[in-house]
Amino acid sequence: MEQSDRSARNVSLAIGRAPGYINTLLREDKQPSLSNLVSLCDELKISVLWLLYGVEMDDESEEMLKIFSSLSEDGRKDFLKLVRSLSALNQ
Fold it and tell me: Which of 3, 21, 35, 41 has the most CB atoms around it within 10 Å of its CB?
């Protein structure tokens, strides 16, 4: 919020929450619901992934993650095996 020069109150209201919502999260070390987290990230124009892990994902990486998450357990194992093999070839 500091980078966007917006107050916690302004952002709280913009995502449809009470004026003190974000301050309460920060002060009381509470966790927002998933829907509030997504709304917060949308409002601040940041990705949930960046907020949680500090990494940004390009479109291709996001597509790979979506494909991966749609696979069966065996498909995921095969996918990982393939990606690890490709990675080893590039080192």
Answer: 21
